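Input (structure):
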C-alpha cells in the first residue's frame, strides 16, 4: 500500500468530523424549531420576538408628542363644563370633581342636580393635531352611585402643548351614536389623532346588552378648524344586539 493510500483515511478524518458536527447542528436546529412551533400552537404565538427594533420615524414622533406634555398633572386638569351639561369650567382635584347642572338638560340628567366627574385613566392618548403635539384624556360623568350603570356620559378632552406653558384646552369629543333599543347606558369611546382630525372609535349598547358588553361599534371623524371640532362622518361598523322596531338616537 502506498504512503498516500495509508494517509487517506487520516486525511478524511477532519472532513468526517465536520460533517458529523453539521448534522448535529441541523438536528439541534430542527429540535428548536419544533419547540417554537409547539409553543406557537399552544399560545397563539405567530412570530418569535426578537426584541425592540430600530427606532422608526413614527415611534420617534410619538415619543416627541408624549415628551411635550412631560410634567403635566392631569389629575388637576381643567375641563369644559359642557361635557356634563354645565356652562362653567370644571377643575379636577386629585382626578375628580363635583359639578352642578347650570343649563337645561334632557332625560336622566334632571334627576341628578349634582354630577360627579372623574378621569377614567391617567395615561392620555398622545398624537399630533394640525402639526402640534396633542393629548386626550378620557372623562366620565356619573350620578355618584358607584356603579358602572351610573355613568351618564363619556368624553375625550383634547389639549395641545405650548412651550413653557400649561397645555391648552381646545375642546372635546363625545360619542355621536347613542344606545339603541331603549338602553340607557352611556356610549363609550376612545380616540386617535390623524392629521388635522380626531378619529373616535365608539362602543354603544343595544337593547339586549348588559353593562359589561356594548356590542355596537361606530367610527366618527372630527375635524378641528377655527377653534372647534366639527363632525365629518359617522360610520356604524357593527350593529348592536337590539330589539326589532327600534332605531338609534344621536346627540
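Output (sequence):
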Amino acid at each position: 500500500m502506498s504512503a498516500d493510500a495509508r494517509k487517506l483515511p487520516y486525511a478524511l478524518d477532519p472532513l468526517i468530523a465536520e460533517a458529523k458536527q453539521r448534522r448535529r447542528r441541523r438536528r439541534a436546529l430542527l429540535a428548536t424549531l419544533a419547540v417554537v412551533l409547539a409553543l406557537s400552537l399552544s399560545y397563539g404565538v405567530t412570530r418569535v420576538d426578537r426584541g425592540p427594533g430600530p427606532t422608526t420615524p413614527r415611534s420617534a414622533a410619538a415619543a416627541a408628542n408624549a415628551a411635550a406634555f412631560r410634567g403635566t398633572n392631569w389629575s388637576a386638569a381643567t375641563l369644559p363644563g359642557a361635557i356634563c351639561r354645565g356652562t362653567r369650567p370644571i377643575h379636577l382635584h386629585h382626578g375628580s370633581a363635583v359639578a352642578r347642572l347650570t343649563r337645561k338638560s334632557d332625560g336622566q340628567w334632571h334627576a341628578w342636580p349634582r354630577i360627579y366627574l372623574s378621569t377614567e385613566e391617567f395615561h392620555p392618548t398622545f398624537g399630533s393635531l394640525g402639526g402640534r403635539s396633542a393629548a386626550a384624556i378620557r372623562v366620565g360623568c356619573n350620578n355618584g352611585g358607584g356603579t358602572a350603570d351610573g355613568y351618564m356620559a363619556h368624553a375625550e378632552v383634547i389639549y395641545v402643548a405650548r412651550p413653557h406653558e400649561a397645555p391648552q384646552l381646545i375642546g372635546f369629543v363625545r360619542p355621536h351614536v347613542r344606545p339603541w333599543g331603549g338602553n340607557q347606558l352611556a356610549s363609550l369611546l376612545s380616540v386617535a389623532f390623524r392629521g388635522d382630525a380626531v378619529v373616535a372609535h365608539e362602543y354603544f349598547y343595544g337593547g339586549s346588552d348588559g353593562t359589561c358588553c356594548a356590542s355596537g361599534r361606530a367610527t366618527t371623524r372630527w375635524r378641528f378648524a377655527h377653534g372647534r371640532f366639527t363632525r365629518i362622518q359617522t360610520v356604524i361598523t357593527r350593529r348592536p344586539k337590539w330589539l326589532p322596531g327600534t332605531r338609534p338616537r344621536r346627540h
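Notes: Confidence is low (pLDDT under 50) at residues 1-12, 28-56. Residues 57-238 form one domain.
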